[in-house]
């Protein structure tokens, strides 16, 4: 299995193919071998398993999510994916948010707001898993994504910088579900967790939606290839500034 389907949009003129906005959504191919290596899919929808059957399952799941972007209930699907991705689901909402905003720019900030609210609510659910169901549910989830060793490494020191960790994970490609579950498992105050989550997720989704609203399809390649890197650099500078201030 060498490729995943990804969305692109093309203008077909007003009303083409039954679209009220004069655009139609199409598939394009993404080479899996380039994922995460500076290729066409810098914002990867999944961390693919080494097992070939795992590739197949996740590929089908990804294509299913993409196909739902054309559904009359796409907004509800976007909310559901945003909620689930914050605790258990492997597909990030970006794969729906991007084509939906391109197809309907006037609803860009409605989509971003939907992602934000649903993602924070899903994060609260992940927090609950960590706080109340860690051994039964949280540990298997972290094991599935290969993050259990990472959890063990920073668990004891997490709460010293837990709020900052929520912010960093909320805006970067780092698996947000790892932080939501860890926050609950280590007892990070719920109020702090929610405030940092709202800040991080709103920043991420509204920046993506705002860029697409302003520049449309031409900015898509930048978002897919470079925006995750810029968010990562922002997070590094933020952490460095925080540590410097704490040392003064």
Provide tags for this entry.
single chain; 248 residues; mainly alpha; two-stranded antiparallel ribbon; 10 helices; 63% helix; globular; disordered N terminus
Q: Helix amount, in percent? A: 55-70%
The proportion of residues in beta strands is 5-15%
Spatial strand sequence of the major β-sheet: 1-2
- Integer tally of domains: 1
Uncertain spans: 1-51
The N- and C-terminal alpha carbons lie at a distance of 53 Å
What is the global morphology?
Answer: globular
Q: What structural category do the secondary elements indicate? A: mainly alpha
Question: In sequence order, what are the helices and strands, one letter per element?
Answer: EEHHHHHHHHHH
Note the total helix count: 10
Which whole number gives the mean pLDDT? 75
β-strand number: 2
Reported for the largest beta sheet, the result is: 2 strands, antiparallel
User: Measured on Cα atoms, how large is the radius of gyration?
Assistant: 18 Å
What does this structure look like?
This protein is mainly alpha-helical. The protein has one domain (72-247). It is built from ten helices and two strands; from the N terminus they run ββαααααααααα. It has helices spanning 52-67, 74-85, 94-103, 108-132, 134-144, 148-154, 162-171, 176-186, 190-215, 220-247, and strands at residues 3-11, 23-31. Strands 1-2 form a two-stranded antiparallel sheet. The longest helix has 28 residues, at 220-247. It is globular and about 45 Å long.
């Amino acid at each position: 299995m060498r490729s995943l389907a990804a969305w692109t949009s093309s203008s077909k003129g007003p009303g083409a193919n039954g679209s009220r906005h004069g655009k139609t959504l199409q598939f394009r191919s993404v080479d899996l071998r380039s994922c995460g290596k500076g290729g066409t899919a810098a914002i990867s929808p999944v961390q693919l398993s080494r097992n070939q059957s795992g590739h197949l399952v996740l590929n089908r799941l990804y294509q299913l999510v993409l196909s739902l972007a054309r559904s009359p209930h796409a907004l509800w699907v976007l909310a559901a994916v945003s909620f689930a991705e914050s605790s258990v689901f492997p597909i990030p909402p970006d794969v729906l948010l991007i084509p939906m905003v391109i197809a309907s720019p006037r609803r860009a900030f409605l989509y971003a707001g939907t992602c934000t609210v649903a993602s924070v609510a899903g994060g609260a659910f992940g927090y609950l898993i960590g706080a109340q169901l860690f051994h039964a549910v949280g540990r298997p989830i972290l094991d599935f994504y290969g993050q259990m060793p990472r959890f063990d490494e920073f668990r004891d020191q997490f709460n010293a910088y837990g709020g900052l960790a929520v912010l960093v994970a909320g805006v970067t490609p780092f698996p947000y579900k790892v932080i939501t579950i860890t926050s609950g498992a280590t007892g990070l105050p719920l109020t702090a967790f929610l405030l940092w989550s709202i800040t991080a997720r709103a920043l991420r989704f509204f920046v993506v939606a705002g860029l697409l609203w302003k520049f449309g399809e031409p900015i898509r390649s930048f978002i897919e290839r470079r925006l995750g890197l810029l968010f990562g650099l922002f997070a590094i500078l933020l952490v460095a500034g925080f540590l410097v201030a704490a040392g003064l």
